[in-house]
Amino acid sequence: GSKAGYQTASVTSASTEAVSGGAIETSTPTIKGTTKVGSTLSVSPGWSPTPISYSYTWKRNGKAISKATKSSYVLTAADRGTSITVTVRGTKTGYPAVEKTSKATAKIGYGTITAPKPVIKGTAKVKKKLTISRGTWEPGGVSYSYQWLRNGKKIPKATKSSYKLTKADRKKKISVRV
Question: What's the rounded Cα separation, in Å, for the pair 99 and 20?
Answer without folding.
Answer: 19
